[in-house]
Amino acid sequence: MNGRSSREGMSVIVKTVTRWVEGFILLYGIYIVLYGHLTPGGGFAGGVIIACAFILLTLAEGQRVASKTLNPAVAAELDSVGALIFLGVAVAGLVVAQVFFKNIIATPEAAQFHLFSAGVILPCNIGIGIKVGVSLFLVFAMLSALHVTVRQDGKRDLVRRGKDES
Amino acid sequence: MIPLFVAIPLGMAFIIPMVSRKLTRAPDVLGNATMVCLTALALASIGRTGIYHMGGWETPIGIDLRLDGLSVLLLIAVNVVGLAATLFSVDYMRLYTSKFRYYSLFLFMVAGMNGVVLTGDMFNLFVFMEIASISSYALVAFGCEHEELEAAFKYTVLGSVASTFVLLAIAFMYGMTGTLNMAHVATKIASEGMSTPLMFALSLFLCGFGLKAALVPFHAWLPDAHPAAPAPISAMLSGVLIKAIGVYVLARLLFNVFGITDNLLQLLRWAGVLSMVVGGLLAIGQWDIKRLFAYSSISQVGYIVLGLGLGTPLGLVGGLYHLVNHSIFKSLLFLNAGAVEYATGERDMRKLGGLNKVMPLTGGTSLVGSMAIAGIPPFNGFWSKLIIVLACVQSGHYALAVTAVVMSLVTLSFQLKVQRYVFFGSVRAGLDRLQQIPGLMAAPMLILAVLCVGMAFLIITGMDTPLLIAPAADALAGGFFTL
Lengths: 166, 483
Hints:
The structure holds two protein chains of two kinds.
Chain A: H1 12-34, H2 43-61, H3 63-69, H4 72-97, H5 121-145, E1 146-150, E2 156-160
Antiparallel strand pairs in A: 1-2
Chain B: H1 4-19, H2 26-44, E1 50-53, E2 64-67, H3 69-92, H4 99-118, H5 122-140, H6 146-177, H7 182-192, H8 196-212, H9 222-228, H10 231-257, H11 262-284, H12 289-310, H13 313-344, H14 355-358, H15 360-374, H16 380-394, H17 398-423, H18 439-460, H19 464-477
Antiparallel strand pairs in B: 1-2
Helix pairs in contact in B: 1-2, 1-4, 2-3, 2-4, 3-4, 3-10, 3-13, 3-18, 3-19, 4-5, 4-10, 5-6, 5-10, 6-8, 6-9, 8-10, 9-10, 9-12, 10-12, 10-13, 11-12, 11-17, 12-13, 12-16, 12-17, 13-15, 13-16, 13-18, 13-19, 15-17, 15-18, 16-17, 16-18
């Protein structure tokens, strides 16, 4: 919990509550992703909740702490990884069974309604969850990193916060 | 093989940003290699047809991809122009930053367009259309200057309106027919006829895809968006995007899903003539080269839609042939404009002049492109316009034939304006010592110029009609999709 006592971000009440709940929010998001094929939810819904956990952290603690927790550069890599997992599942079907997106993981009768069932849907959901989680966080991070300045000739410029702000 | 048209560019679009942090040349190499692969795949699919069931699920349950003559024609146009654009980008995109983002977005756009022309499912089509559109919004804004952002904002808002229309129409279609598969919808409509909600869906489709195709009166975004983008992207947008997600889908829906009627044909002819005339007349007054070419795109899309709207076999052949030709010469002209901008930093024709002496290759290829688009023999544009005019006369639409010829002369006039102010005449002071155009920028211009002549040669000898154009026209003339 280093660096969390900084004056950035919101009041100490918000920071404390955030510290208590953010882990649960993240866990809930992961649960929604993993159980997408059994209960309502799935990769997208779970990914949104995961992103919300990080967005809450950014709002409460400020950008510096948030970017220490999830570095935007790492997030950008994860963004591609998530999409490639999804595409990889589809191409695996093409390689193994000669049909794009073929379900190549058989589900035994006994495994039905358990976590590891429903074939390729689980890996697809994980891919989507990662992709949506970090993408939404990145969208938020980008929007909060830029602000508009009005030049003297009336034109508007987007400037990265903290860089040329003078 | 069919899903690879989507899978390869989509995968590469995600791999490029991952590897390019360490390898700076990777975006160029991977981007071009991808387009070479796709072009080879597109050429290999000539003459093939087939329905591919994704995931092995049968048609009503799963999504299917349909490859037929029309899809092949569009695939070739998209991927050949895409290859020319990526080759051009290697050096041209040094003017901008973040090359890996550019290639990533570019390949998304290609994946979206390939998906749109292949899919046989309405909602899948919507998703691919959005992939192509949204990446094109970002690419228009790529320079992040005032002009680009304004154009991209306008394009985004109007494009989103069009997408909303399409989504609403798909909802109506699904509500009335209970299926999203194009072939199922077509069989349903063929057996039960149109109902009022389906007519409403059709009109929403016409507005939505009419806006994507930039038909007058839905054209307002195009003259802003196409010039603002980087030159290879302008070439892609004007050359293939408005056709793949606009004209192609419109033709597919009207001819193969809803079934063409005389009223619809008349509507297409009116939209075509209106675009042809308005786009052409507005182009005359432009002084920005790329803006002039953008208006001329509206006019040329009018020719394509007019050809399709005649509904006769000759009209369809003319329209589709002009579609391919326009994607070749319009992308060539935009690349020329990009080369001029690269060398001089200027797009205003009043500040240019005499570039033929300094940039002979750009001047020469641009003359080929201008003459082809104006319909001067022996270039390809002449033959496709001739077929369209003949088809007008054959079906008794003499006024349309005369309008097409007159607008061709108007096109010639503003293309000569480009030649006169940019390439001919005396060299302006300060323009005599320009840096040379790199070889990788010259090569795609040369290839496209050769294709302008080559396509004409192929049609005269009758070689490309049985291979490309006739199967595409047959696919449209075949009427309702069958299962």
